[in-house]
Amino acid sequence: MEEAHTSAFIFEAQAAMSPPLPGSAVRGSQSGRPLMALFDLLGRRWAMRILWELNHSQPTFRELQILCDGISSSVLNTRLAEMRAAMLIELNDYGYSLTPLGKELMQLIAPLREWSKQWEESLKD
């Protein structure tokens, strides 16, 4: 039993050090399936908020920190590094921006906004 606990701890530590990418075991899945890696990445603290802000502007690190309601610099730095490794964002002369893959992802997520409004309404019934 202690071995299983140690293995889980080692897996969590490795997951924290490397971004979730297709082909690798991620939180909640050992399969390496691309969708599971995406869910892991997007499910990390502040990840969706960062992508949301980058979908509307091209902020510097400090500007993005302010836009994200004062996210800590260490968490922001970690999320940015993970999303850069996943090729969803890039850093250029003007600040951070979505890559073509990141823009495509945000277009695919957009319909969920409307669905979530309908979901909210159905919960009120």
UniProtKB/TrEMBL annotation:
Domain HTH hxlR-type: 33-124
Keyword Transcription regulation attributed: yes
Gene3D superfamilies: Winged helix-like DNA-binding domain superfamily/Winged helix DNA-binding domain (1.10.10.10)
Key words of the record: DNA-binding, Transcription, Transcription regulation
InterPro entries listed in its UniProt record: HTH_HxlR (IPR002577), WH-like_DNA-bd_sf (IPR036388), WH_DNA-bd_sf (IPR036390)
Pfam families linked to this entry: HxlR (PF01638)
Protein name: Helix-turn-helix domain-containing protein
